[in-house]
Design goal:
Blueprint: H1 5-8, E1 12-16, E2 22-28, E3 31-39, E4 44-50, H2 58-63, E5 68-72, H3 75-91
Antiparallel strand pairs: 1-2, 2-3, 3-4, 4-5
């Protein structure tokens, strides 16, 4: 899945090859975050990790205790949910 910065309300978004997920590193203002996107059997799910450079593997990101998860039934809902979680992390 190809995400665009404008869709998520971020300034920069770079895709990094992942082993079993899509990995992105994004920048909003002076904050950096990693975004891991997974495809499950019934839904799409993702994890946003603040202050991360995307060095974690897909499995490592899923296991780290830092960050927020989100879930969606389709790609349109996914964008909305990702945007919410990124904004939520910026407020904390």
């Amino acid at each position: 899945m190809l995400l665009r910065p404008q869709e998520l309300g971020v300034e920069k978004l770079v895709r990094i090859e992942g082993d079993r997920c899509f990995r992105y590193v994004g920048v909003v203002g002076d904050e950096t975050f990693s975004l891991y996107l997974y495809k499950g059997e019934l839904s799409l799910y993702f994890k946003v990790i603040p202050n991360s450079t995307g060095d974690e593997s897909c499995d490592g990101a899923a296991l780290t205790p830092v960050g927020l998860y989100g879930f969606a039934r389709n790609e349109e809902e996914l964008i909305v949910e990702m945007k919410k979680k990124i904004q939520e992390l910026r407020r904390s």
